[in-house]
Amino acid sequence: MKYLSLLFIFFLSVHTCNAQLFNREKVTYDANSGRGSTDNNLLRWGYFLGINSYDFNFDYNEDLRDIYVKKSAGFSVGLIGNLRLNDFIDFRLEPGLIITNRELYYSQTYFTGFPDLNNSDLTREVKSTYIHIPLLVKFSTKRINNFKPFIVGGFSTALNLSSNENNPDDNSNGQFRTKKNMFFYELGFGIDLYLYNFKFTPSIRGLFAINDELIRDEDPNSPWTGNVASMKTRGIFINFTFQ
After folding, report:
1. Domains of the chain, each with CATH number or no CATH
2. How far apart are CA 137 and CA 133, in angstroms?
């Protein structure tokens, strides 16, 4: 349902610009400055605001019940630097701040043989604040009236400021730890909408971790980390870009 809600917001933003999309004449955005369209500039700048939903993908050593991940909507904000190669290909650097939250729910199966643990030990909250830096390639179609669809893909790195990687305490002391440095690949699509004073771009993008994010407990039989072969972030963004 969360992913459906994100998709609904994306398509609603496109629909609100429908009146300008299909005008007979192209809109000359940035007209007030006298510069006309800046699409042909070698370098362009902008910023984005967005929402996100992050998840974890688990692989296990043994076939026990899955760890359930409860997702929450997060917030994204950042800057954009765009390098134009030609009418159809651009390089983009989009450094940003991403705030998100996930809760892990463990089955009682994991705690067999640990009689001293209570119900609060069945859940772990994973708060993440990422400094996220993607390097992307944008492939656009030819502009049609006031819109230009595109696909985008690339790689990114992120620094998790909430990782607890260097915390000496582990889950036996209530501390769930993740790695500080992460690497991802990203794929998405969007539409450039040419409005009167600027270009507005709603886009949707998926993010998939390359490296394992979990810091394991000292006890190799830990009920929280002992059965986890890998824990990799995956997520979905809806960004609204202004240029």
Report:
1. 2-242 (2.40.160.20)
2. 13
